[in-house]
Amino acid sequence: MATELHETIFMAKQGRHKNLFLxxxxxxxxxxxxxxxxxxxxxxxxYMKRNSLTTLxxxxxxxxxxxxxxxxxxxxxxxxxEAIGNLARLQSLDLSNNALQMLCPEIGRLRSLRHLxxxxxxxxxxPPEIGDLQDLETLDLAMNQLMSLPDRLxxxxxxxxxxVDHNLLSHVxxxxxxxxxxxxxxxxxxxxxxxxLDLGRSRELQFVFVDNNVDLKGLPSYLYNKVIGCSGCGVxxxxxxxxxxxxxxxxxVGLPAEVKLIGSQTDNVVPLEELAMRTMHxxxxxxxxxxxxxxxxxxxxxxxxxxxxxxxxxxxCSQAMFTIIYPxxxxxxxxxxxxxxxxxxxxxxxxxxxxRCLQTFDLQG
Length: 365
Prior knowledge:
InterPro entries: Leu-rich_rpt, Leu-rich_rpt_typical-subtyp, LRR_dom_sf, LRR_domain-containing, LRR_R13L4/SHOC2-like. This is Leucine-rich repeat-containing protein 28. The protein is α/β, with parallel strands linked by helices. It has seven helices and 16 strands. The protein has helices spanning 2-14, 60-63, 237-242, 244-251, 272-286, 301-308, 355-360; strands at residues 19-21, 45-47, 69-71, 92-94, 115-117, 138-140, 161-163, 184-186, 207-209, 218-220, 227-229, 261-262, 312-313, 320-321, 324-331, 347-352. Strand 2 (45-47), helix 2 (60-63) and strand 3 (69-71) form a beta-alpha-beta unit. It starts with a helix and ends in a 5-residue tail after the last helix.
């Protein structure tokens, strides 16, 4: 095997190959032959799947500066060195099926990265710097131990496909709704109790899978007419039989802490605090050119975050909402999608900004 390995690497150096296949070679350590001399400067794709590697060399970027794709699926890698951030041209990195327990912040320096696969590891958290990957299109985090996602993930402006199935997520940040190129979001088999109010507001998002989140009772009405997977979710059959108000109460379990009030059709006056927040939001986001305002730094960070990323937008008129919602329940079994989702008691929930919008909202109109 060693002779065959040496010959494979030698031929790659001599022929200035762009692709090198070292899959299934029973490698315990990274071959030193790959890092000798300058013979692999032309290498662009390195395949090292199904070996027994535990780490990567610190000088990988120095010796393989033109690497575009690196496939390390099914090894025993525990840690990735900080020097991984020096692979300036890397576009695809596959570290799925390893033993990673953490991801170094330097991963955020891979500014050319488009595809990152980290499924089936032991990750419990992600570094905020992952939000610096503005060219990232695919992020696969399935089968880890993640309890949350970084708020800065919304900075991955190019993200199209996000998979976080089989983790420990109880919620996802509302900033996720600002990923305007996101086309597919899969969060099956987590511990979700609630979804962001604006999820599905983006027209680009077409596929959402939240199957087997047993405590998830309701879906934002923006997801109506999307391709959704929601088997194993929903309110109890008893709640539906007892009436809409009971079912709505159950569907609203897990509301974000920012929600201070839940309005109804009879509440004709929007609270003053909410009106003040809406006014501030308009001033900060739609102020005329040349209008001088006090520096935003005088506002508390929590308030700035809420102004930048509202709780949600009215499903009827798109008014930003901050402290109060007016919800309306639409059991899926009563919609045209009932025939597609026969085994679920999940409901759509419309979140409106006032009693007027609540009264006039129509799920199918």
